[in-house]
Structures are given as structure tokens and as C-alpha cells.
Amino acid sequence: QLSAIRLSVRSANTIWAFSFRHSHFLPFWPVSRWAVFHSDHGYQLGELNEWSKKTDTELAVHVPLIIRVPWMTKSIGQRTTIKAELVDLYRTLADLAGLSAVEPAVQDSVQGTSLAAVFDSPTDLPPDLDAKRAYSQIGRCACGQYCPGGKASGIQGPYLPCTGSNPPVHAEECGANACCRIEVMDFDYMGYTMRTSTRRFTAWVPMDNVTLRANWNRTIAMELYDLTNDTGRDFDFDGYSNNLAMSSEHAAEVATLLSDLHAAVNTWY
Predict the structure, then answer these.
(1) Given 33, 110, 128, 192, which residue has the most CB atoms within 10 angstroms?
(2) Has residue 27 got a pLDDT over 90?
(3) What gap in Å lies between CA 192 and CA 240, rounded to an integer?
């Protein structure tokens, strides 16, 4: 299975590399045509002792994003550090196509930020885009008290209580399927993540099963990673494993990031 995944990745890399490098030679690819290449999620093959995609780590949510716009010549062949999100694509493509100048323009209800300005200055970003943050979230279900040797009553069922010869351990374990095919009213927690230019901050918040919103008054765990030196090309970057959230010297920073993340999430509803 691992070999098959690696082969698929290698094949995909070959296809998109050929398409973008040689697109200007193809008769069906005129100068006025653009192209967008991206995936829907990242993947973990053992890094951080994780497998698959059902986490909120950098490796699980970081995706390739390549946009070729032939008439924006300053952008061709350039790499940018902007924290882009797939939700930004609609507004970005609308602006690049000139649709924002046509009435009716993109509706205010459409989420995302236009990244069109990056194509004029990919390495010297406008201040507002340079400060842009990216967000992700993932649910956790079937959570219960963890005990060595404890068993679950089912794939989705709660873990059996820690009793008798199995003394409680101060930790919880949740189902590995990340709430797949589970109604929001049955979620136990939601993990919200905010990625800045140098930090990755995650807050794990209990879900209120009545309001179907996170209860920010009971944030149960936080993660803070320093990704200042992360190039995005080292899947075993040390910063991914060093959680700074519990360090007293980062307490003020954690409080600020938590407040900013909470405020951002509130705008989604």
C-alpha cells in the first residue's frame, strides 16, 4: 500500500510538472488560458507517528497550489510565502478574470480573500496579504478516558470506564476516524488551527451539542509551534513536534493567539 501511494504521488508530480513546463508549446493551450493545480488535503506516511490525513497538523492540511496566469508575467516561475487557502480561489480567480469590475461583482457573502495582488508582486507582498492567516479545523468523536489495555465498545462507541486494575490515566483518547459520517450534534471536540507567518496555533474546544457551536469557555488543550524556519519541504521538521503552548514564557502569546482564533471562528457563522 505504501509503495502504491508513493507511486501515485510520483505519477502526479510527473503529470503536473510536464503540463506546466511545456504548456506553452501545446497548440490547445493558448497564451490567454490559465491553469490552477491543487489537492484537497495533505497526507502523513508516518511523520509525527501519524498516518493518513485525519489530523490538524501542518502535513495534513498543507497542499500544493500552483496557479499559472500567462499575462501576469511577474508571477511566472515565482514562489510566494503568502498563507493561501483554497477558500481564496473563487475571489482570486474572479479578480484575475476582471469579473470584480463587472456588476454584479462577487457577493459579499462569498468567503475568502483575493490573492490577485500577489501576481503583481509575488515576493514583496502587500502588507494586508503579508499578514494574512490561514485556518483549518477537524472534529474529534468517540472520546473517552484512556486506560492501558482498555477496549472500546465499538468503532464509534465510547471507551469503557477505567476501573479496578486499570487505574485512570489523565488523558483522553478519541476515535481515529475524525468524526467521519458523524452528525455535528455528536461531536465531542473541535480542533481549530490558525497558521501565521511564523506560528501554528491550535485550540481544542468542546462542542456544545445543543447549539452546535464550540464552547470557548472550556478550551481543554492548546498547541503552539514555532515554524519560523520551516521551508515546507522538510516533512520531519523539528518544529512540528515541539509544543510551546504550556511554556510560561509563551503564555502571553498563547492568550493573544487564542483570542484572535476565537474572533476569526466567530465570523464563520
Answers:
(1) 192
(2) no
(3) 16
Could you tell me if 94 and 111 are in contact, meaning their C-beta atoms sit under 8 angstroms apart? no
Chain length of the chain: 269
8 Å CB contact between 19 and 35 = yes
Residue 148 — very low, low, confident or very high, per pLDDT cuts 50/70/90?
Answer: low
Q: Nearest to residue 72, comparing CAs of 80, 63, 84, 64?
A: 80
Q: What residues contact 13, with CB distance under 8 A and at least 6 apart?
A: none
CA distance 254 to 184: 27
Q: How far is residue 264's CA from residue 200's CA, in Å, rounded to a whole number?
A: 15
Of 139, 187, 181, 144, the C-alpha closest to 162 is 144
Cell of 211: 447549539
The phi and psi torsions of 260 (rounded to 5 degrees) equal -65, -40
Q: What angle do CA 34, 37, 41 make, to 5 degrees?
A: 155
Exposure string for 68-78, b = 16+ CB within 10 A, e = fewer: bbbebeebeee
